[in-house]
Structures are given as structure tokens and as C-alpha cells.
Write a structure and sequence with these properties.
Blueprint: E1 3-6, H1 13-24, E2 27-30, H2 31-40, H3 44-55, H4 61-69, H5 74-79, E3 81-84, H6 90-102, E4 109-114, H7 117-125, E5 127-129, E6 136-138, H8 165-188, E7 192-196, H9 201-212
Parallel strand pairs: 1-3, 1-4, 2-3, 4-7
Antiparallel strand pairs: 5-6
Helix pairs in contact: 1-9, 2-3, 7-8
Bound molecules: adenosine monophosphate (AMP).
Length: 214
Amino acid sequence: MNLIILGPQGSGKGTQAKLLVEKLGLVYLEMGEVLRELARKKTPLGEKIASFQSQGKLVTDEIIAEVLKSFLTEENFKKGILFDGFPRNLSQTNLLEDELKNHQVKIDKVIFLNISFQESLRRLKARRICPTCGANYNLVTMPPKNGKLCDQCGSQLITRSDETDEAIKERLGVYQKETLPLIEIYRQKGILLEVNGEQSVGTIHLEILKNLGS
Ligand code: AMP
């Protein structure tokens, strides 16, 4: 089974994706994280990606196509892939369609975690990350036990470079302009599963599983 998970920043895509990957044994492609890993490498490509990310802008489709190559293999499609953070605009949707045709596979469902703009903003502002081990926290929904320190390694938590007020505004704008129109495309194809993302993590997970027939 191949799935896409879509929704605004802060909708809980990563949390739900990880639960689904574990439950269904899928290969997980978290595009934002793959790009952050490349950015950390400080190569010319990494520096280019870091610059797009820190401004909250989408990286170019050429870079995305390059990253995808190593993921869209027969072996991964056999296991099933969960796409998180991709596709993010119309040209990426077309790119994915071409790749799916080449491999004679399809997307079974597109899970849309819907939350309001206000809720998205509130959750993003509360997000913190550990610069040492990469653990994620949210001061509202998933606070660290020990003030501002990482539960796992004790490092001082920081705000992601693309979670400044400016970058958040830019990212939500890009989402509304470029990603939201994809929802209608998948709705018309009859494969959209829309879920209220403001429910509890467990309730959302069960609702998704029920609709996938798993
Ligand atoms: P995310 O962690 O999904 O919020 O992504 C963080 C950042 O990575 C985005 O603001 C973009 O700069 C970049 N990014 C992630 N996925 C994509 C994509 N499919 N296309 C272009 N840029 C992306």
C-alpha cells in the first residue's frame, strides 16, 4: 500500500506517519527531514537547501527529483511507501504520477490532516528541537520533563531555524498557495481521506486505520 499524508505545518503529520509506518511496515519518506539531513552536510547542495529552508521557501523541483531517485525503487514500492511532505505542489504531483506509472503502482489513499490556520500557528510557535539528538518537543502538547532541556540527552532545546515568526508566515503562505490545491485533485480522484487533525493522537490514528481497512 502506498500512502501520502498531507496537512498544514503542525497538523501532526509526522506523529501519525510514524504510527502508521510502524503498524503497516511501510517505508517512510519524510521529505523535510531528508532535506534537513542533506543541509547539515555543508556541501554546496546542503548549503543551497539550508538557505531555502531557513527562509521557509520550497527547495527547487530539481533537487526534489534528485532526492526521490534513491527512494522510488522496486524494493521500496514492494514494501509500500508513506510520503510525508511530498508532493507539495502541482509539478511534484505530476512528477510522482510519472514515477508511479513507470513502476506500475498507485497511491491508495491520501490522508489529509485538517487543522485551522490559527491552530497551526499556535502549534508551530511552541515547537522545539534538540540540536544534538534531533528529538522533537512541543511546549503545549509534548513538553520536555526538564524545563528547556532534552529528555534524552540533556542538551538545551532550540527553535528550528525555519520556525521564526517570519519563516512560519512564509511556510503557511506557501502551503495555502501551493499545497492546498492538491487536496481537491486527490478528492476528485476519490482517494482522499480527510481527518479532523484537532482530535487526540490516538483517535486520529484509529480513524485512519479504520478507513484504510487495517
Ligand atoms: P517540513 O519539515 O515538512 O515542514 O519541511 C521543511 C522545509 O523543507 C520546507 O519549508 C521546505 O523548505 C523544505 N521541503 C520539505 N519538503 C519539500 C518539498 N516536497 N518540496 C520542496 N521543499 C520541501
